[in-house]
Automatic annotation (TrEMBL):
This is GGDEF domain-containing protein. GO terms for molecular function: diguanylate cyclase activity. Its EC number is 2.7.7.65. It comes from the Bacteria. It comes from Sphingosinicella rhizophila. The keyword Chaperone does not apply. The chain crosses the membrane at residues 7-32, 38-58, 70-91, 97-116, 123-141, 147-167. Residues 349-373 are annotated as: Disordered.
């Protein structure tokens, strides 16, 4: 989409090119008022009347995230290049060297604008350059002026070099865009699990319209520390990655899954009503705890506790919702874990400090599937 947007950009260059070709064709038609030149000037004016609205329509569509009239726009651009080439050919073939000089200078000047505006589509650049400037070489051959044969030799090399430059600029642009996209992805995603990080979650929420309500689920793995302590951090990392995949699998369409750090995950579900919160939270618990995780050559089991908060009932922004969901999470842990607790509306829940500690964790026998409390 960014490459296509570039084709509709640089409006001043576009207007300058259109005005130049209309002025040159009109002046030459006034100097040589014959049918070929009058038709050329009329065609340039008609193309200008079509190309400018197509450009403006395309710019508006791209700005709104829609597809513009790209094929029609490309067709007009090719016709314009062919018209420039036609005018150059008949001007040189006419033997009027004032008209020929004016037309050739105009055609050569257009090549820079063609490359600068359209290097997002290098094949289009190659076609437009060949159509606009190529006829100069043919006209030099048929002009009957031996000195102009040097033009027939120079222009093919010029066409080749400018086309190569367009392809080079295109590769540079694509490489830069890929690097920017990768950097943006890395900035918004957890490098290990590849789900969103907190920055990515905040960006996701900014782009969402939560008029229909939303629910935030704060998920913590019970017994994860034992896995880390017994099998090492690489095993813990593998477990977290597998848990993230399970959360993504159970997430409703359009939901966001994020890892805030350690074994703490967050899922935000847009349009989730109060009656859907607890069933969805328990589905997360079942998904995370229903089967063991193979870590290396061993099967390990962990539990999960979930705290949920509803927008806007429990908070109007991410920090407020996280705070209420965190309180609900530790209330779930205080009652034995392996369950989903929803933030109460106006009734304080147990604070994290009052429930945190060894007594709040359910027993987690090693390499055995624990029974829910």
């Amino acid at each position: 989409m960014s490459l296509v947007a570039g084709l509709y950009g640089t409006l001043p260059i576009f207007i300058g090119g259109v005005l130049n070709t209309v002025a040159v064709s009109s002046l030459i038609a006034m100097r040589i008022p014959t049918t070929p030149f009058i038709l050329w000037a009329a065609f340039e004016i008609a193309l200008a009347a079509l190309r400018l609205p197509a450009l403006l329509k395309g710019r508006k569509a791209i700005a709104e995230g829609r597809e513009g009239p790209t094929l029609f726009y490309f067709s007009l651009a090719i016709l314009w290049a062919a018209s420039v080439g036609y005018g150059t050919y008949i001007s040189v073939a006419s033997g009027d060297w004032v008209a020929a000089s004016l037309a050739c200078l105009s055609s050569a000047a257009m090549v820079g604008g063609i490359c600068f505006r359209n290097f997002g589509a290098p094949r289009l650049v190659a076609v437009m350059i060949a159509l606009s400037l190529g006829p100069c070489a043919l006209a030099a051959i048929v002009s009957g002026q031996p000195i102009l044969l040097i033009v027939a030799l120079q222009i093919p090399f010029y066409l080749f070099s400018m086309t190569k430059a367009a392809y080079h600029l295109n590769r540079m642009l694509v490489k830069t865009m890929r690097a920017e996209r990768e950097n943006d992805h890395n900035a918004r995603h957890d490098p290990m699990t590849q789900v969103l990080n907190r920055l990515g979650l905040e960006a996701w929420l900014r782009d969402k319209d939560a008029k229909n309500g939303a629910a935030l689920f704060y998920i913590d793995l019970d017994g994860f520390k034992q896995v880390n302590d017994r099998l090492g951090h690489s095993a813990g990392d593998a477990l977290l990655t597998a848990a993230a995949r399970r959360l993504q699998a159970v997430a409703p369409p359009g939901a966001a899954v994020a890892r805030l750090g350690g074994d703490e995950f967050v899922m935000v579900v847009d349009g989730c009503g109060p009656d859907q919160v607890t069933p969805l939270g328990m589905e997360m618990v079942d998904t995370l705890c229903g089967d063991g995780y193979r870590v290396g050559d061993q099967m390990v089991f962990v539990g999960a506790s979930v705290g949920a908060a509803i927008y806007p009932q429990h908070g109007a922004d991410l920090p407020a919702l996280l705070g209420e969901a965190d309180r609900a999470l530790y209330a779930a842990k205080a009652t034995g874990g392996w369950r989903c607790a929803v933030a109460s509306d106006g009734t304080p829940l147990l604070t994290p400090k009052s429930v945190r500690g060894p007594s709040a964790m359910p027993p987690m026998p090693w390499q055995e599937r624990p029974e829910a409390a």
